[in-house]
Amino acid sequence: MKSAIEWTRQTWNPATGCTKISPGCKHCYAEVMARRLHAMGAPGYENEFRLTLHPDRLEKPLACKKPTMFFVNSMSDLFHEAVPDKFLDRRRGKAQQEGKWPLLPRPHMGCLSCCSDGTW
Predict the structure, then answer these.
(1) DSSP string covering 66-103, please?
(2) What is the mean pLDDT, run by run of 10 residues, along the chain of 120 residues?
(3) Is 62 helix (H, G, I), strand (E, B) or coil?
(4) Chain center to CA of 67
(5) In which domain, by residue range, is 88 found?
């Protein structure tokens, strides 16, 4: 999805939703946006802000003809404990293509083990 965010070109959300785990989650923009998108009937937000995997979105970056800047998972927690490792591995494979992949990690330690090898 093309983005109006000035520092990125596209957003990529193969998962949506999250679980509030800290006081920092109290004013989560993604939760508010997910409720809005649900009310508008946007595809992928049928569960509002409950964690939902969208395997059909995994191939989206492959459609780009040239390297681009993808904001990864602006609408969920990439390293949520309920996201299976196999799903993460499929996503990581897409991130190894050319381009830039800024991640917005939530306070989960899962991102350290997944990102420590430099493939993200």
Answers:
(1) S--BEEETTTB-TT-TTS-HHHHHHHHHHHTSSSB--B
(2) 69 90 88 96 95 89 78 84 84 57 52 48
(3) helix
(4) 18
(5) 10-115
